Amino acid sequence: MSGEILSQNEIDALLSALSTGEMDAEELKKEEAEKKVRVYDFKRALRFSKDQIRSLTRMHDNFARILTTFFAAQLRTYVHVEVVSADQIPYEEFIRSIPNRTILNVFEVPPLEGRILMEVNPNIAYSMLDRLLGGRGVSVNKIENLTEIETRIMSNMFDHAFENYREAWANIVEIDPIATDFEVNPQFLQMVSPNETVVVISLNTTIGDTTGMINICIPHVVLEPIIPKLSVQYWMQNPDSKEHSPEDIQSLEKRIQQADLPVIAELGESDITIEEFLLLAEGDIIELNTLIDAPLTVKVGSVPKFTAQPGRVNRKVAVQVLGYMKGGDNDDE
User: Fold this and answer.
1) For 50-243, which CATH class?
2) pLDDT string in tens for the chain (333-residue length)
3) Which parts of the sequence belong to the Flagellar motor switch protein FliN-like C-terminal domain (predicted)?
């Protein structure tokens, strides 16, 4: 077991197994004495260190948070994006792992060479499309019958989403993402040779009640010029890349204080058909889903933050904040 670092849980489990007799200490010693041979697959060359993979994971953690904000604003529903894995595999293996029909967005990232692929699971893509068209976010996988309008809407949305990739890479290199291709069949897409090593960042994405994966495939040729910058030593040797002067911090705080922030007090919600909406006339009553004596929900942006009661101030309609709403992942915002 030399060379391995065990977690506290693994240590406790090992001691428990030894004390109960499930494992024999003598057998462990014999196994350690035996010469171990590790099989190395030259077709699956590991061209990135664990340290570099961790740096890429941190970068995409930031990208996941940016995507969460972007999609929530565009779709006006609950959205959560998080990194679940980062692996280096041959390009051919990645192509075999994704569905035969899926959403493939190809981007160039100058000044870096090569192209980056963003694969979006059809369940997620159609849920987004349904929300953009006024639906509830229902996903119906009919990727083989994608219309020109649906293709244009999807490609535009993912193009704008990937523009945020620039911010995630800002501390490493200034890139300018440019959409170059939109495809639904992986077999028609050949970015690099089948044995080329690629880094695949998998993002678990939740849109309302629909969950799926967004995979970002980065070939080695793209990362090769910046590999030295993906190490801890680079960050330690370049503290200025992460620190800001007091003047910069003060300027940033001033801009934040002057930023407009939408605050919305909701009386309630109601679902009606389009026919009912078209027949609405003056004097009609719409029944809301809240009681008349129930507190209102005050949203900051699209996030529920406060409870309030309606009233008037100087002949103007107003609300009085009653309390703070806790819960969810946004308590610290």
Assistant:
1) alpha beta
2) 445 556 666 677 777 776 666 666 666 666 555 556 666 555 555 678 888 888 889 889 999 999 999 999 888 888 999 999 999 989 888 988 888 888 899 999 998 888 999 999 888 888 888 888 888 777 666 666 778 888 888 888 998 888 888 888 888 888 888 888 888 888 888 888 888 889 999 999 998 888 889 999 999 889 888 888 887 665 555 544 445 667 778 888 888 888 888 888 888 888 889 988 888 899 888 888 888 888 888 888 888 888 888 888 888 888 888 888 875 445 554
3) 255-322
CATH superfamily name and code, 257-324? SpoA-like (2.30.330.10)
Question: DSSP string covering 128-179, please?
Answer: HHHHHTTS-------GGG--HHHHHHHHHHHHHHHTTHHHHTTTT-----EE
| pTM as predicted | 0.58
**Domain ranges for the chain:** 8-37, 50-243, 257-324
